[in-house]
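Run log, item B.
One chain of 499 residues. Sequence copied directly from the ordering sheet:
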Amino acid sequence: MGGSVWSIVEETAKNYPSRVLLADDHGRTLTSLGLKNEAERVAAGLLDLGMTSGDVISWQLPTTIEAAVLMMACARIGIVQNPVIPMLRHREVGLISEQLGTRLLLVPESWRGFDHAAMGRELGLEVVAFDYESPVDMTTALRLPVGDPARLPSPPTSVDECRWIYFSSGTTAAPKGARHSDSSVMASALGMIERLGFDENDVYPIAWPFTHIGGIAMMVTALQTGVRLVLFDTFDPAMSADRMAAHRPTMFGSAVPFFRAFIEAQTRHGAGALFPDVRGCVGGGAPIPSQVNDELIEMFGVTGVVGAYGLTEFPMATCEWPDDRLVGTTVGPASPGVSARVVDGELQLRGGQCFLGYVDQALDANAFDDGWFRTGDLATVDTDDRITIVGRLKDVIIRNAENISAVEIEDAVIRHPSVSDVAVVGMPDTRTGERVCAVVVLAPGTELGVDDLGAHCMALGLARFKCPEQIVVLDSIERNLMGKIQKDRIRAQVAELTA
């Protein structure tokens, strides 16, 4: 996949000018030619604000057409863009902007009750803000700076310089900035393009943060294949799935909260298919519980959730095929152009989508092993080169000097009929170092004891020393918007409840 991101925008606009690439929950649509034209207007608006090639802009927009247009506008003039997940607040945004020397912060005035503009000003940043809370319909103009495209310089041609900086959505540590080029973010789409078979007949709703690195991966996929992206700025489990149904989606994604919403919407709908065109489901961000996978298969006739895996530093490293008989059992083989190996249990990767290095260069030394990126994930690779993620190096419970994968235990616990969600964490223990604690959400009207859960886990083949020694019941398991369990917060909850 040669050329720059902007060159693909131009090529698609030339070859398929009337193809609708983007839609939203407010009735707005944008064709490929419309995307090019609007991105050029916004690029000119950024120039009017004093931005030039190489300057850093941090932007924190919800999942809207504006986010996609701004992304392409920055690519048009070579601005180094730093998309920031909207749920991040003063501490994270302050750390990010300080590391990057952010030249400009573009945000909503306020969104979902939080004053983003005030936050930026309190951090001492130059802020450009727009109204994202007033009603929006198909006539609403883009809530972005605009100018005269006639003033634009020639597009940048380099594909290997740092033009994109994404910060990890880690579950415990401070966010780390991964530096990407046009070349690396474009390579992140190769797995989806080859494996998922997207074309101009496909519709893919997105309610997760478009500022996640998956946003540019899906944007490149849409430009290359014609799949229509339908963007939802908010996600309401009780309503969003029904609103998505109006767009006749062909692919569901991408984490447990969204899959549950689709299942519950179909259940409410009753007889007849609410989503008659769905041909597959793709997962990412966290393992999909087998119970959810089984419900999707039964309700929608799909083969299961297509496994895909990647990191901010190395997006879309693997992907399965929707019609593969082994869907739901692995995250698939490595994506095109990616090499994978396992060293001392850790998955290591090489390939075109690998990041250029961290913003904090001191982190680079431990990130690579002779040119291979160290993922920090524990994995196995079978004889067909399919990769299974079995845990995190840092998500290991050390009990009596034995390493125990929390993910392995979670997969067993979630299969208990009384458990609707689970997070397994290690808690300090004076006798064993750490004890295995299963934090569970129970199905209505059920109870669960340690002995019952232990017998269940051993019946599934789990060794006795890995079985949970403690059960803590919560109303919900806290996850971020990409579905990752917030283990540090879960541990804090357990510690408070058991103090």
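Observations after the first pass:
- Residues 53 and 79 are 5 Å apart (CA to CA).
- The domain at 396-497 is CATH 3.30.300.30 (GMP Synthetase; Chain A, domain 3).
Flagged for discussion on Thursday.
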